[in-house]
Amino acid sequence: MANYFNTLPLREQLAQLAQCRFMHTVEFADGVEALKGKKMVVIGCGAQGLNQGLNLRDSGLDVSYALRPEAIEQKRQSWKNASENGFVVGTYQELIPTADVVLNLTPDKQHTSVVNAVMPLMKEGACLSYSHGFNIVEEGMKIRDDLTVIMVAPKCPGSEVRAEYVRGFGVPTLIAVHEDNDPKGEGLALAKAYAVGTGGHKAGVLMSSFIAEVKSDLMGEQTILCGMLQTGSLLCFDKMIEEGIDPGYASRLIQYGWETVTEALKYGGVTNMLDRLSNPAKIKAFDLSEELKVIMRPLYNKHQDDIMSGHFSKTMMEDWANDDANLLKWRAETAETNFEKTPAGDVEITEQEFFDNGILMVAMVKAGVELAFETMTAAGIIAESAYYESLHETPLIANTIARKKLYEMNATISDTAEYGCYLYNHACVPLLADFMKGIKSDVIGKGLSLDDNGVDNARLIEVNTALRSHPVEAVGSVLRGYMADMKKIV
Amino acid sequence: MDSLTRLDDIHQNRIRLSKATVSFDDRFTLREIDWTITPEQHWVITGPNGSGKSALAAALAGIGDIQGGSIQGLPNNVEIVSFEVQAELIAQELKKDDADIMDVISLGTPVSEMIFDHCQDTELAQSLVEKFGLSTLLDRAFRKLSTGETRKVMLIRALANKPDLLILDEPFDGLDVDTLAMLQAHLASLIDTVPMVMVLNRFDEMPDFITHVAYLDKERKDKERGDRERSGKQRGDKGRLKLTVDRQDDAAFNELYQLLHLKTTDLSVPEADPTNKLPALDPSQPLVKLTQATIQYGDTVIVDKLDWTIERGQHWQLSGPNGSGKTCVLSLITGDHPQCYTNDILVFGFQRGNGESIWQVKQFIGYVSTNLQWEYRVSTSCKNVIISGFYDSIGMYTKSTDSQKKIADQWLALLGMQDRADQPFNKLSYGDQRLLLIARAMVKHPPLLILDEPCLGLDDINRQLVLALIEKICQGSETTVLYVNHHAEDQISGIEHYLALEKNH
């Protein structure tokens, strides 16, 4: 199979990358009509598979589960999940030929084998749905011409997809239609109905393309989202220990600090995150992040270039073929780092203290978000996509670190993200070695010790203007505005 | 307090609160409590909803932030059983479930682990497990238990830990008659070994061995304002210890009894929303028809071949011991149970599993239960909680209409909670939350009103208010009531149909 993106002419690549818009509520007026009475068969009964299925059924749709014969015979967990919840469960042979829509909710790595097994069994003119486009775009899976191919990707863990639905709401969802496989022109209608069935339309739906989703998703997850947070965690922790900060305190500051500072990011972008600092600290964070951006820009460019050329997915698939040798090695190394091994101390850190004593962390988030956004848009990805795959998702990943540090983050994200995260981390730690030599506990661990908070007016105005005029802030405020309209009324 | 008294206290194992002011985040403050508990005493704490009964109990368990005065002499090994602690345990279990982003479904902690890990007296725990009838549930996930069953697990944990002070906040609520008698007998056998402090909303449930009663009351608003100006710090509601009564003192005891049994005033139920009518139901069809309904997990059968038809205007009471599947049967009707799709269920004209959505079913139902209260963990205002009943949602995701707001205000007035319309729901006491959820269930005058142990956590006065409301609704023609409870004295006039479930497993 050849990399699909690389087979397209440049103009088509650019056109695909430029797709992403926030859909209006009126576009979902038809509800689940397009799927009413159709047979939906889910493959994979993990958290996404089960919970999406529960929602779709509660929306009045016909859902059943196709599992491998071993899973059924041995009554494995996936079989229990599906059958205890009252779903019809059967083998591929039994259920796929009857399906109008097949929902592939297995992990990326299994896509090729699952799709190869399923495709010959699918009936003429049916629909195959993905929740991530890697298989199509990077692995170049060619789907039978008569089949419609769509993507519906709730941007939250499975348990949340269900919990929000039960409350009467939903989670933000990305949809796309694979243009090479839309023979009847019904792809969009099916994807919209699917999003309604899971409750996604209540929380906001983004219309994107397979290519934009894959290229921006890969870039975001391996740089700012996982890579930067992992690198930052390790460097900041070691620096604090070197500076004589109590290890328990240092561990807590980092484990919960990312979550706290990115919460401010979620509400009001990079600007609001820096506005939480005192004026002198804000200027300090700004200067640090400018320095970081100069040092790290070549690395961000390399990641984006490797993703665009297909080099990244090629090397990763080689590792898949090699029994994940690199991935497993890196995973073990992470478990042995000082940060990972030092439990968070039993000290109270107030919300504001996370900002005051974590100036470098704020600077790293700012630098990472802005660089990822700038690099993506420079590569032809539309600003909306770049925003979602950088700034918007950072708090979600930070939340996983708060739960159980880097282990939880890496276990939670896809293997694809984890692989990219390690590549980034291995390059970025040495890259920042010199920079870190100049860092003291005033920007990580203790906070600035100043007699007064005075700053130069002109400099403050300069910094504030620079923050507020960055393009990620412009698109962010528009998108957050849409989301707020749909958000829970608290 | 001088050092001599303190030495004396230590010698006597007294617990002494001296002008203790204890705050619980922003939600509640106990003000200047003076109270002494000696080892041979057993106390009941009582008082209206929101007066701080649970807060005082929690303070004895070392929960809360002491802002003034002191609490001396608390033993090291204190056990507390309360809705708050129960809710916290459930929340922890749910959080584990959240950890499933790895695309694995978490199964949750099994009951056996909850009971036997860190257990002081395994033998006692074992015998309690049998007495409480939990032997068959040891392998079940804690969070899959029914309300009463979780409560039992908490009780066993507390009792088997051999505490030096046992605090039981509403221990009898949610227990079936047999379990209740067994628990009371067990507690009576402990009176010489451990001092007990109980929070009871139902004065009549007070065990004979109780020696003293502490009565709490809310601090009045006008006074509070003055205080706030002075202290400038404490927010939220405040409670004071108004009086303590020795049970031997008949006069004082009777006075307290009177205080707790005020008459409910004349009631009128606020109207339904005239601007938003539900679709009409076919009058020839029953509201609900279950045919051979069965609920089963693996080999465990919870509900076995139940036939049940609810005709319009037929008010029902559903009863049965803990774990007999009452809540399961109700969730088949509400559509919250996944096995509603494998059963023959006709609700409001929908044969389930034929393309209807759960929202089409839920629009005809008003519902209140302990599970709902646990699930109602979103932060929203009290008024929005009532309005969310129009949308069957937990939290509000749509702008409410003026007409809905007006009706919600009427409900708040009826509950005496006008001044709290905009306060966050999750900072209220359990009983006050419960009142709002009852209003939420009734607000749209649903064709079917399901009240699953609605009075749990309510004080005597509010319980009478709620029972009176239910009676009013039963008298009307538009709503059919389905009522679940354990308390024989909470009979509702107008209910003439009874279904008793038995335990199958």
From TrEMBL, chain A:
The gene is ilvC. It comes from Vreelandella glaciei. Belongs to the ketol-acid reductoisomerase family. Keywords: Amino-acid biosynthesis, Branched-chain amino acid biosynthesis, Isomerase, Magnesium, Metal-binding, NADP, Oxidoreductase. Pathway: Amino-acid biosynthesis; L-isoleucine biosynthesis; L-isoleucine from 2-oxobutanoate: step 2/4; Amino-acid biosynthesis; L-valine biosynthesis; L-valine from pyruvate: step 2/4. The active site is at residue 132. Binds 2 magnesium ions per subunit. Mg(2+) 2 binds at residues 217, 389, 393. This is Ketol-acid reductoisomerase (NADP(+)). Substrate binds at residues 278, 414. It holds the Pfam family KARI_C. Its cofactor is Mg(2+).
From TrEMBL, chain B:
The keyword Mitochondrion does not apply. The keyword ATP-binding applies. PROSITE patterns: ABC_TRANSPORTER_1, ABC_TRANSPORTER_2. Gene3D superfamilies: P-loop containing nucleotide triphosphate hydrolases. Residues 15-243, 288-505 form the ABC transporter domain. GO terms for molecular function: ATP binding; ATP hydrolysis activity. SUPFAM superfamilies: P-loop containing nucleoside triphosphate hydrolases (SSF52540). Keywords: ATP-binding, Nucleotide-binding. Pfam families: ABC_tran. Residues 220-241 are annotated as: Disordered. This is Molybdate ABC transporter ATP-binding protein ModF. It comes from Vreelandella glaciei. The lineage of its organism: Bacteria, Pseudomonadati, Pseudomonadota, Gammaproteobacteria, Oceanospirillales. The gene is modF.
